[in-house]
Amino acid sequence: MLPRWSHEGTTNDSEDEEEPKRPLSEFYPYIRCALCSLFLIDATTIIECLHTFCKSCIVKHFFYNNRCPTCSTVVHQTQPTYNIRPDRQLQDIVYKMVPFLEESERKQMCQFYKERGLDVPNTGPVVIKRQKKENIPPSVFTIPPELDVSLLLEFVGAEEGIANYKPLERRYVRVSGEATVRHVEIFIRRKMELSSACQVDVVCGDHLLDHFQSLKDIQSFVGEEALQDGLLVLHFGLVLPSQP
């Protein structure tokens, strides 16, 4: 049999040579989560920038931040979880590259459900049943047009002597421009479980806001100074009422 020749004029014996093996660590930037530094589980990709993380990691991250942890791109002004999608192809690649990872994850999941007396969900292949088009419900992610103002609520601290309040976990809120500062204060009080003796001061830019002011009016007279990536930024602090 005649030898095969490459374009450089040398014999090509690649069929007889074993493909060089690369260490798994070379692929870590592509198969590990940047948030937990472990191998991807339920790989989930941000559609705005295509960075991928574990589903549980990125959902927890979005409780406190609406930007991508890797590139700081704004994922969504108020609901960043709208713009993430499962990346099943990448997850299949991770399971094939890391031996026993899938089996270990399945065992941990079964143990989790059994310890809590719950039925273990079926992890086999999913059978998709066809539905009539008219029976498909409309998207649950439709944002009503009247919710036209996106808020970012920044907590600046509490006066000495104020304690026993919960952190504000939901900093990003979408509301109507007709809502007033009083409505924002009520929201903060409920979420942080504040005492009635505690006063909430709300500031936009350098302006201390009155309860009767609407968000639309605030955004109008403060201008660009009040906005950050399209969100109306309100800073608030907890103070004790002034003594008469």
TrEMBL record:
Transcriptional repressor. May modulate the levels of histone H3K4Me3 by activating KDM5D histone demethylase. Component of a Polycomb group (PcG) multiprotein PRC1-like complex, a complex class required to maintain the transcriptionally repressive state of many genes, including Hox genes, throughout development. PcG PRC1 complex acts via chromatin remodeling and modification of histones; it mediates monoubiquitination of histone H2A 'Lys-119', rendering chromatin heritably changed in its expressibility. Within the PRC1-like complex, regulates RNF2 ubiquitin ligase activity. It comes from the Eukaryota. Residues 1-21 are annotated as: Disordered. Residues 33-72 form the RING-type domain. GO terms for molecular function: zinc ion binding. One of its GO terms (cellular component) is PcG protein complex. It is found in: Nucleus. InterPro entries: PcG_RING_finger, PCGF6_RAWUL, PCGF6_RING-HC, Znf_RING, Znf_RING/FYVE/PHD, Znf_RING_CS. Its main location: nucleus. GO terms for biological process: negative regulation of DNA-templated transcription. Component of a PRC1-like complex. Interacts with BMI1/PCGF4, RING1 and RNF2. Interacts with KDM5D. Interacts with CBX4, CBX6, CBX7 and CBX8. This is Polycomb group RING finger protein 6. It holds the Pfam family zf-C3HC4_2. PANTHER family: POLYCOMB GROUP RING FINGER PROTEIN. PROSITE patterns: ZF_RING_1 (PS00518), ZF_RING_2 (PS50089). Keywords: Coiled coil, Isopeptide bond, Metal-binding, Nucleus, Phosphoprotein, Repressor, Transcription, Transcription regulation, Ubl conjugation, Zinc, Zinc-finger.
